[in-house]
Amino acid sequence: MAFPERFSNLPDYAFPRLRKLLDTHAPGGPVIHMTIGEPRHPMPAFVGPILAQSLEGFGVYPPNDGTPELLAAIADWVQGRYGVALSPERIMALNGTREGLFNAAVALSAETKRGKRPVILMPNPFYQVYAVAALTVGAEPVYVPATAETGFLPDYEGLPAEVLDRVTVAYLCSPANPQGVVAPADYLARLMALAERHDFRIFADECYSEIWRDAPPPGALAVAEAHGVDPERVAVFHSLSKRSNLPGLRSGFVATGPQSMARIRQLRSFAGAPLPLPIQRVSEAAWRDEAHVAESLALYQAKFRMADEVFAGRRNRVSPEGGFFLWLPVPEGDGEAAALKLWRETGVRVLPGAYLSRDAGGENPGKGHIRVALVAPQTELQHGLTRLRDCLYD
Fold it and tell me: What region holds the Aminotransferase class I/classII large domain (predicted)?
């Protein structure tokens, strides 16, 4: 029986790879998980009551694109957060951003560009769905290093013109997973100008936008509006997973221009799965409430300060501007070896950076790093960070 070749070169996903690396070895201490970016702050108190009041909604097919109430709540949130007015026709509810980041490429990336195989750009390291989306639509994934030398943002402007002319989509995550850097407004504006010159779309993954150190990150929608960029040029993706500590709700949204949204909605009508109605009711309440977001942000900002204190004086420390990961360069430049040493000697579990990257130009930009998730309760987190520091950096 034949199988498609387009996914034949995919590596194992990050977490199965991690289990293969670590699980044949005994932990060297009480286990502390600092690998997966699963928020562990309290979810909003209103979730249970709204679900209980909405149970009958599981007995009906839900609105495909989102209820009018949910789309209005999202539009109001975008207006309040970014000062951008969106009509409901420019928004669609998602089963988390991963669904949207994948399906938007299917809906919007053309089969050819200038008579050649299209290119989809992505930062390297990156959220792995970007690469699978590119392969699914027959595009060439181009992995653009996002390292200390580039300010941890991909230098798309430095790519050859013949590559840029084949680009259909450029992915960008800000705040970045895993590096925690925030793309400034001028970077976003230059990227949009580049997209206008070479006629491609920007997919702005902003799911960490409400977790930041000093100031709210700028949004692609606001920058696009300020510079008069065609709304069809930019699609943004947001989620309640990180903002509201609801990763299991699988709820987010995509917003873009009306023509692009019509294509995305058309694909959803044939092949997508809308959010169950009770989930949409909870989502509506979550987008309309900022109190729980502020409480969670304060906890993350306390964790940033804790990490600063634990790693004070270490040259290897890299403090995030946003998101909830530390992206730490490791001694000897081998993240796998560092993760295994840490597990065997302390019981602390972290993710090798190479598992989030691809070899490109003979280099894997994540190889010399580990990713550390700042999601555990503060006492547990302090123990984990201290053990990590003492094991790898002292």
Answer: 32-387
Packing angle between helix 335-346 and helix 14-22, nearest 10 degrees? 50
Block residue for tokens 């993710």: 351
Region label for 160, one of left (φ > 0), alpha (ψ between -120 and 50) or beta (otherwise): beta
- The letter for the amino acid at 39 is P
Coil vs helix vs strand at 352: strand
Helix (H) or strand (E) holding 144: strand 140-145
What are 138-168's pLDDT values in tens digits? 999 999 999 999 999 999 999 999 999 999 9
Give me the residue spans of the domains in the chain.
14-42+292-393, 60-289
CA 254 to chain centre: 13
What are the tens digits of pLDDT across the range 30-52? 999 999 999 999 999 999 999 99
Which superfamily, per CATH, for 14-42+292-393?
A: Aspartate Aminotransferase, domain 1 (3.90.1150.10)
- Whether residue 230 contacts residue 257, with contact meaning beta carbons closer than 8 Å, is answered with yes
Q: Are 218 and 229 in contact (CB under 8 A)?
A: no
